[in-house]
Design brief:
The structure is a homodimer. Chain A is α/β, with parallel strands linked by helices and about 375 residues long. A seven-stranded parallel sheet of chain A has the order 3-2-1-4-5-8-12, with helices on both faces. Chain A has a three-stranded mixed sheet with strand order 9-11-13. A two-stranded antiparallel sheet of chain A has the order 6-7. Chain A is globular. In chain A, about 40% of the residues lie in helices and about 20% in strands. Chain A has twelve helices and 14 strands. Chain A has one domain: Rossmann fold (3-Layer(aba) Sandwich).
Chain lengths: ~375, ~375
């Protein structure tokens, strides 16, 4: 299958490209290095430098014997995206090409505007390009569990039957996102759902929880093929951040009460979920939604685990509750259904002590590159 | 109260400006004439030419002795909107400044892109400008009943309590819009709802049904103060179109079965709803939603009424069902709650035979300017 990966330079885009290439698919990656530029501008370089996409593709070919094609350009630009789709004519499109940081989207008006314009216009252009060049292509869109927020009822997989005054209607599960970034993903969903109904698009929306880790089957023992690993507040996911903080003796930053509960998954499972979705595509005219997580933890539970495993490895890990810069519930009901991907064949890689120890070991190797001032800046939600 | 009307040149913006000025408010109107340019480009001029905003403000002053201030510029441009908000420091903002046509948004990719970029970025800029310059200002946003679509359960006023597996949560009423234009209004709501929660904005969202008519208390017997009256498929609302078709003997274009039911209101009631909302503002941190309609009709019912009243006035009105260019249900449940604005004091102007006859009389005066080729073009939804 010919697969176009939009945002192929990212934390998840690049590992997906390698896995799908390893599985025999013809892979094309597209990126404009927006994520790299934002990190530079905000002075939050990742843990180690990562080669550019052309270079990584060469490294991958040396390692695997397989080719990946690269296009560098801005997907909000119709001339560029139509050129790519016209040349590639993909069977499937994976849409990772978004400004992916909730705190970044809350910094100021300019960052908010960039987030809105990039995320909405890339999604719109993907819809128009699929319609024009590959109307049967399967769009796999990376959504986020953050679209749902923290409702007081169970979170179903994308849809809910509402009974009201003796009548019944199936709706998209109502969303109430916790950041502007997450809100742009809700808006993406609005647009995709509309055009699925109008143009019979074929879409899978993967409502993903925070991802952790950096080792996959394709890059194990090949650090030159690792993705970005961010440990800063803007681009680092919470467990990755806690691991880096543990390594340098920076007290783990628990926001407020620490009861915030979310659904997490190993980066290996992200890749498997995306691949399983591609191998079992949605129907034409279907917006299929899966909740992409394997287990839920509160922030306190994550911090305690990192502390326990870290201390067992000779680190001296402290946990410190700080004033919550976000506006969110710190103690709430959270019960998301997540059986759809398991039914497709997902075999979860849970967060064991061994997995955590492996992450800590890798980060320890880069300990001297961690700059403490990058860890926390307290971007405020209000 | 100092009121900033964004989109003050439009079908509803200008009549609102006059009414609020007549009621003693200090009114400032802003527009970039986008609606006029789109109509020119698409060759769908309104029934009669309308003076530009500066000229209309002079006409209004000559008539009423009251001043309205004008700014001409593009609200997607932060430099412009921040200049306006900085100078005006409004107590309330009425946000009409959107590409308002469902069929226009479905013409092609360029029209869709314009709709998305204009509507989303104006709304975002309004949010940022209020936050920066007038954080206590009341935003009255013109939404649309079209955001809800045609669900099989009653349409509540913006919110719904969902009971699910023994638990309960209040949600924004789930939306499934019927055009890209309507979808951008859903996206606007997503953004407003997010920032209401984060920044304690004060917002009223008026979910308005199709409006008809052109005579208001302020322009009665002053045709030079009439708003645009469009009779074409792109910018004409259905009843206005049917009246023009009846006048020139163009069979009333009923799409498909004609069972499509919507909630309608007289332009006078739109103005009253907006004014009542301003006089009774939402609280800080409240997204207050009203369904703004006074009665529901199916398309067949509207066509039959125009036929009956028109024939009674000596016209020869035919009704013709044509293939539906839209993708929509032609026969469906429709029961919207709309008591909130009545509780605020709205006294509806219903669609009586007299109201319809007055509309027909005015359009008859301009009969020779109606170009039949402008009436229908069949912009397809799919």
């Amino acid at each position: 299958m010919k697969i176009l990966i939009l945002g192929g330079d990212g934390y998840l885009g690049w590992p997906s490209a390698m896995q799908l290439s390893a599985y025999g698919h013809e892979v094309v990656v597209v990126d404009n290095y927006l994520r790299r530029r934002m990190a530079q501008e905000q002075d939050v370089d990742p843990l180690f430098q990562v080669a550019n996409l052309h270079e990584r593709v060469r490294l991958w070919q040396a390692h695997s014997g397989k080719k990946i094609e690269v296009f560098i350009g801005d997907l909000t630009d119709w001339d560029f995206i139509s050129d790519v789709f016209g040349k590639v004519q993909p069977d499937a499109v994976i849409h990772y090409a978004e400004q992916p940081s909730a705190p970044y989207s809350m910094i100021d008006r300019k960052a908010a505007t960039l987030t809105i314009q990039n995320n909405i216009m890339v999604t719109a252009n993907v819809i128009f390009a699929v319609r024009e060049f590959s109307p049967d292509a399967h769009i796999v869109k990376i959504g986020t569990m953050g679209e749902y927020g923290t409702p007081n009822i169970d979170i179903e997989e994308g849809w809910i039957d509402v009974k009201h005054k003796g009548r019944e209607q199936k709706f998209l599960y109502p969303r109430q996102a916790g950041s502007l970034y997450h809100t742009t993903k809700v808006m993406d969903t609005d647009m995709l759902w509309f055009y699925v109904r109008m143009w019979d698009l074929r879409v899978t929306d993967l409502m993903q929880g925070p991802v952790y880790g950096l080792v996959t089957d394709e890059n194990e023992n090949h650090p030159e093929l690792y993705p970005f690993f961010s440990y800063d507040e803007l681009f680092g996911t919470v467990l990755n951040r806690f691991v880096a903080q543990a390594v340098v003796g920076y007290p783990l930053t628990v926001y407020g009460k620490g009861g915030q509960t979310r659904g997490y998954l190993n980066i290996k499972d992200t890749l498997n979920c995306v691949r399983l979705s591609l191998e079992n595509p949605a129907d034409k005219g279907e917006l299929r939604i899966f909740n992409q997580l394997t287990e839920t933890f509160s922030v306190n539970e994550l911090a305690e685990r990192v502390q326990r495993v870290g201390n067992g490895m000779g680190l001296d890990v402290e946990i410190k509750s700080i004033e919550n810069p976000r506006k969110e519930l710190e103690d709430h009901y959270y019960n998301p259904v997540h059986s759809g991907l398991v039914e497709l064949g997902l075999e979860p890689n849970f967060l064991t002590d061994e997995v955590l120890a492996q992450m800590i070991e890798i980060v320890v190797e880069h300990k001297d590159k961690i700059a403490n001032h990058r860890i926390f800046r307290g971007t405020k939600w209000a």
